[in-house]
Design goal:
With 169 residues, the chain is of the alpha+beta class. The protein is built from 8 helices and 4 strands; from the N terminus they run H-E-H-H-E-H-H-E-H-H-E-H. The protein has helices at 2-20, 43-47, 51-60, 75-81, 91-98, 114-122, 135-139, 154-164; strands spanning 35-41, 64-71, 103-110, 148-150. The protein binds ribavirin triphosphate (RTP) and magnesium ion.
Length: 169
């Protein structure tokens, strides 16, 4: 017990030292930010009023918002975004779903492999199989209506940021 308390006390002292070396805001630790990815709250997420819930999860993870825009996506842009799935049987349904009402486009920034951090927070594609604690696992039940998109690699992140936010490419 004594050792544990002493250890906690040492952590507190170190925390205080770190806090003193913080920047101008001085309130919270922020890791150096070097890596960006695209996140989209899909039409079902916006329709269901889950924007705050989803953005809150990204922010609580200590990812930083770089850009955010509510936008209705044209069919052409939806087809370009999901071009890798053009030959799949669900492509027409996916494009219709994605362009049916506004989405929230986000660019988020973190210290390293931000796309992978976001994908972990999202959970697997089918919400019925996604782990509890993930966005899809906690909030979704159907595959198409799976609330959130995240780039799946550094290359996808660069391509998708350029597609939706050319000024940030
Ligand atoms: P996203 O691209 O939207 O982040 O989703 P993801 O990487 O988890 O999944 P992906 O394989 O890229 O599929 C893109 C979206 O297509 C729909 N889908 N439907 N019916 C089906 O078998 C099926 N498979 C995929 C989902 O809406 C998925 O998010
Ligand atoms: Mg994908």
């Amino acid at each position: 017990m004594y050792l544990r308390l002493e250890f906690e006390y040492q952590l507190q002292r170190e925390g205080l030292r770190n806090a003193r070396s913080l920047g101008a805001a001085g309130c919270c630790y922020s890791p150096p930010l070097v890596d960006r990815t695209l996140v989209i709250v899909k039409p079902d997420g916006v329709e269901r009023g889950l924007v705050g819930e989803i953005v809150g999860r990204l922010e609580r993870k200590n990812l930083r918002l770089v850009a955010a825009e509510l936008r209705t996506i044209t069919r052409e842009l939806a087809e370009a975004h999901y071009a890798e799935h053009a030959e799949r049987p669900f492509f027409a349904d996916l494009v219709a779903f994605f362009s049916r009402s506004p989405v929230l486009l986000l660019v988020v920034e973190g210290p390293k492999d931000t796309f992978a951090v976001v994908r972990t927070l999202m959970g697997v594609t089918n919400p019925a199989e996604a782990a509890p604690g993930t966005i899809r696992g906690d909030l979704g039940i159907e595959t198409t209506e799976n609330l959130v998109h995240g780039s799946d690699s550094h290359e996808s992140a660069a391509r998708e940021i350029a597609l939706f936010f050319p000024e940030l490419a």
